[in-house]
Amino acid sequence: MPWSNQNGGGGGPWGGGGGNNQGPRGGGNPPDLEELIRRGQDKLQSLFGGGGGGGSGGGGAAGAGNSKLIAIIVGIALVVFWLTQAIYTVQPDERGVELVFGKPKDEISQPGLHLVLWPFETVEVATIVEREMTSGGNSRNGTTDGLMLTGDQNIVDVEFKILYSVNDPMPFLFNVTRPEDTLRQVAESAMREIVGRRPAQDIFRDNREAIAVEVQQTIQRVMDSFPSGIVINAVSIEDAAPPREVADAFDEVQRAEQDEDRFVEEANQYANQKLGQARGQGAQVKEEASAYKDRVVNEATGEAQRFLSVYGEYAKAPEVTRKRLYLETMEKVLKGSDKVIIGQEGGNGVVPYLPLPEIQKNAGGQN
Fold first, then answer.
1. Which residue in 252, 255, 264, 297 has a CA-CA distance of 20 to 30 Å to 330?
2. Contacts with 58 (C-beta within 8 Å, 6 or more apart), sequence order
3. Counting beta carbons within 10 angstroms of the beta carbon of residue 240, is it exposed (0 to 12), middle (13 to 18) or buried (19 or more)?
């Protein structure tokens, strides 16, 4: 051996003799690797109950002990490997479905630690939290996924988002091969169908919310027909624009439409202003006519009442009443006119001509 005592002593590798015999820590030759392995195996055999004999009779026992040790180590490794395959964890945002020989069980694995009899049983896990999917709106990057034909033969580039979650992991995992890809295709098809039935103005600004609601209902109806286990929580149209090749022309059309709307609004305001003024004037004329009518009717009613009262007096004393009416009438007629009194010829001392206006002037001048 390399570590043999060179001075003829019978010491072992750890310096078990006298004289100059030294172990590996005492400055002598290093111990043999095979001897170290054998000593380690002997110690392991003693720990597991195996006996270690010396000489030629101990070689067979050592081989049997080695085989037992290897079997134990392999067994432990297999158990550890089986446990890593059989034990699985379901997170709070996940649900699991166990399979027996590839056939899913009816039970759904809730969040926590679970055990299956691998390899006879396996598990599939699905995420159930709400997720977002964006579709369309890529024509500016060179693709045509978002280009759609509207009901009035216009082309629009639509970008929209879908918020969805998994409410049933069983059909989500086993009914549809690629549920996310299927959802994307169904969403694009539903959006094209709804946009194709409406004018471009609806998708640009007038009726986006109603279109999004209709698309959501259509997607949900199609996904439920599989079924897929997917619930569509919301659909939102993020952007709708014309293709970049005609963007400038479309902007001009939009500006023209905005000017048209502005002119129409101004015309409506002017019409409402003039209509209000005309209605006010009409109401004023109507009120004046109503007041005139009431005044004339009241005056006529008063005259009729006065005539009736005079007729009553006339019926009682016709001659007196006739004379009074004559005098009152003559008073009204002669009251504002110039008066001249001319007497009969040959009167007894009466001045034949009496200019009363001149007399009244003179009287007024003297006063």
1. 297
2. 52
3. buried
pLDDT in tens, 163-198: 999 999 999 999 988 999 999 999 999 999 999 998
- What is the C-alpha separation between 112 and 282, in angstroms, rounded? 83
- Relative to beta strand 94-100, strand 353-355 is unpaired
In this structure, which amino acid lies at residue 206?
D
Give every CB contact of residue 166 below 8 A, 6+ residues apart in sequence: 95, 126, 127, 128, 172, 229, 230, 231
Q: Two tokens at 355? A: 């200019």
- pTM reported for the whole predicted model: 0.53
Q: Measured in whole angstroms, how far is the alpha carbon of residue 292 from the centre of its chain?
A: 63
Task: Set out the domains of the chain in order of their start, with CATH numbers.
Answer: 130-241 (3.30.479.30), 318-344+351-366 (no CATH)
Nearest C-alpha neighbor of 111 from the set 93, 98, 97: 93
Q: How many residues does the chain have?
A: 367
